[in-house]
Amino acid sequence: MRVGILSTGNIAATMAETVKQMKEARVCAVASRNLEKAEKFAERFEIPKAYGSYEELAKDEELDVVYVATPMSEHYENVKMLLNHGRNVLCEKSFALNKKQAEEMIHLAEEKGLLLTEAIWVRYMPMWKTLRQVLDCGMIGEPMTATANLCYLIDQVPRLMELKLGGGALLDVGVYVLNFASLVFGNEIESITAKALMTEGGVDAQNSITLTYPGQKMAVLNSSLRVISDRKGVIYGTKGYVIVENINNFESIAVYNRDREQVAFYEQPSQISGYEYEVLACKEALEKGWKECPDMPHAETLRIMAQMDAIREGWGMKYPQER
Q1: Sequence-separated (6 or more) residues with CB below 8 Å from residue 232
Q2: Do residues 31 and 51 touch, judged by C-beta distance below 8 A?
Q3: What is the mean pLDDT of each run of 10 residues along the chain (323 residues)?
Q4: What is the Cα–Cα distance from 309 to 322, expressed in whole angstroms?
Q5: How far apart are CA 91 and CA 274, in angstroms?
Q6: Residue 242: CB partners within 8 Å, gap ≥ 6?
Q7: Residue partners of 60: CB distance under 8 A and separation at least 6
Q8: Res 323: pLDDT
Q9: Which H/E stretch holds residue 174?
């Protein structure tokens, strides 16, 4: 599969290095708004074509899929431009700034008959399926409560502190804890309660979210740009509990019975970076003629976007593009 990469930041570099080590795909082109940056990136990862504008890459008909790694504020325009030029797209999380943008992007992809999927990598990984199987087989009985946190010391990253760039903890790392809760309990949410501590620039530096579900089930979630956390997810059931190490890239899943004895343990399989799974999912979708990936269908992207919209509305946090 011939991959193009839009942007030359750190996340784009991770993708380029990952694909370089895959036999199923290769990066054939990279684009930046600065030709010199694109050329340096291309040289670094042995990419044959470098473009000094995003539109030049969009016009490259030799590309099977384009990976969008620009700031979240740019996804809406970047993805629409790519789709209008006939490109299939793998777009980084968070997919858009809000549900309305996401709906427009998805509708355009459907009109054009193109593949469009959200690159929330953990959804495509084998360990995501393993955890689903653990819960489905009843090892811990009925899951009733879940906690998850994802916090990093990243408040020095300029784009994360800029409201106009889609900054804040919620869209950058909070999206992972919401996806974790979705895996455990689904998306039939009865209520959302969320609090945030805001920066002077108007973005959430850290937040706490409580979701309640039918059957008196609850998820308590935390994310932050200002502290380091253990990144654990814990699922409490009627017969035991599960501890997931690193909800951002499941390193292990430990299962305990009602006596708090470990009864099962699953380790992350060997991986390049973890990005390879979303690339392989795109390859399978293209080969089978799918316009979305089963691991992260459009409906699921829209549900998570709607949750983040509701949370931000409660905070009174609006991006300039929404005003």
Answers
A1: 147, 148, 149, 243, 244, 245, 246, 247
A2: yes
A3: 98 98 98 98 98 98 98 97 98 98 98 98 98 97 98 95 96 98 97 97 97 98 98 98 98 98 98 98 98 98 98 97 90
A4: 11
A5: 16
A6: 131, 134, 135, 139, 140, 234, 235, 253, 254, 255, 256
A7: 4, 28, 29, 49, 51
A8: 83
A9: none
Q: And the tokens for 253?
A: 């899943």
Beta-strand ranges (E) seen in 107-261 are 116-119, 143-151, 191-198, 204-213, 217-224, 233-237, 240-245, 252-257
d(Cα 165, Cα 70) in Å, to the nearest integer? 10
* CA distances for 190 relative to 34, 135, 215, angstroms: 47, 21, 10
Give every CB contact of residue 84 below 8 A, 6+ residues apart in sequence: 58, 108, 112
Q: Is 201 left (phi over 0), alpha (psi -120 to 50) or beta?
A: alpha
Residue whose pair of structure tokens reads 């392989």 in the numeric block: 280
Residues in the chain: 323
Q: How far apart are the first and last CA of the chain?
A: 40
SS3 210: strand
Tokens of 46: 């042995």
Q: Which residue has the tokens 């509701």?
A: 310
Model pLDDT, residue 11 = 97
Task: Give the pLDDT confidence score for residue 59 in this predicted structure.
Answer: 98
Is residue 265 within 8 Å of residue 255, measured between CB atoms? yes
Is 322:171 a contact under the CB 8 Å cutoff?
no
The amino acid present at 206, given as its one-letter code, is: Q
pLDDT at 311: 98
Strands 204-213 and 217-224, sheet pairing: antiparallel
